[in-house]
């Protein structure tokens, strides 16, 4: 699979408790991105953060939080990311979504690698 050298990083800030159609939101987004043929997606789990409500979400052992912050990152060329945005919009009630132009310097192993 090839990824263009100039790409766009779609970053979605969410929470572990967020849901879409009875499944975790982050899982639904990754599955939709894969169905759309986007080049790659990763979900990152935060240890502490807050959002629009200013409530701190933390992974401290005493809190045993099940509502930690998540960041979903998806990368592809600008046209494919732009085409995916309406799908994402239909999945989100609220949240923060950012787009960032990135330069890819390496993706995967060389074809002659054993």
Automatic annotation (TrEMBL):
Domain of life from the UniProt record? Bacteria
Among InterPro entries, the record links this protein to: N-reg_PII-like_a/b, N-reg_PII/ATP_PRibTrfase_C, UPF0166
Sequence similarity: Belongs to the UPF0166 family.
Q: What's the name of the protein?
A: Uncharacterized protein
State the species of origin. Azospirillum palustre
Q: Taxonomic lineage per UniProt? A: Bacteria, Pseudomonadati, Pseudomonadota, Alphaproteobacteria, Rhodospirillales
